[in-house]
Amino acid sequence: MTFTATLVLPYERAPLNLNDSGATMGAKFARAKKIRDLRNAVVTLARAQSLPRGLPHAAVALHYRPPNRRGRDEDNLVATAKPIYDALTEGRPAAVSKKSGRPVPARIGYGLVHDDVPAYMAKPTPQLHDPVKGEPGRLWVVIEWADVAKAAEVAA
Question: What is the rounded distance in angstroms from the CA atom of residue 80 to the CA atom of residue 107?
């Protein structure tokens, strides 16, 4: 049996784009804030839906319905997808760098899977959907996973 959950993100446009250069310090700080806000939103939505934790594998797909028909490239959505994938992993606690001795901030994570490497997470190409006239853009994530308990019963 396969389970599916949909997290509707609070954005009308993808907050990050691979075409953003981020050349200035201000742009880098703004990008970091967008990443942090996106991760926090995903963790909050995952908690609200009581998604499982510690799954052996899950598929996570980003979907975007833009507000208009302007040409878009689905590859640019990868910049928004990466923080979403990271938010669904275990995250990491704050620490001190062994090399520099500087503090390393904690990274928030929900713990759906251990890591976002292929062994734990499938990441299909983000999907672009046709706009709906008169409606704002919409960004959502579809997560699929197998019923681990049922799979163990079948294997036994």
Answer: 16
Cβ-proximal residues to 155 (8 Å cutoff; 6+ apart), any chain: none
If you ran DSSP here, which 8-state letter would residue 98 be given? T
Provide the 3-class DSSP secondary structure of residue 142: strand
Strands (DSSP E) found in the chain: 2-9, 58-65, 95-96, 103-104, 121-122, 127-128, 138-146
Residues in the chain: 156
Residue-wise pLDDT tens digits, 26-75: 888 899 899 999 999 999 999 999 999 999 999 999 999 999 988 888 88
Structure-token pair, residue 62: 């980003």
Collapsed DSSP state (helix, strand, coil) of residue 71: coil
pTM over 0.85: yes
Total structural domains within the chain: 1
Count how many Cα atoms sit within 13 Å of the Cα of residue 112 in the half-sphere of its side chain.
30
Q: What confidence tens digit (pLDDT) does each residue in 93-128 have?
A: 889 989 999 998 888 999 999 999 999 999 999 999
Give the whole-angstrom CA distance, residue 102 versus residue 122: 34
Of 119, 111, 56, the C-alpha closest to 88 is 111
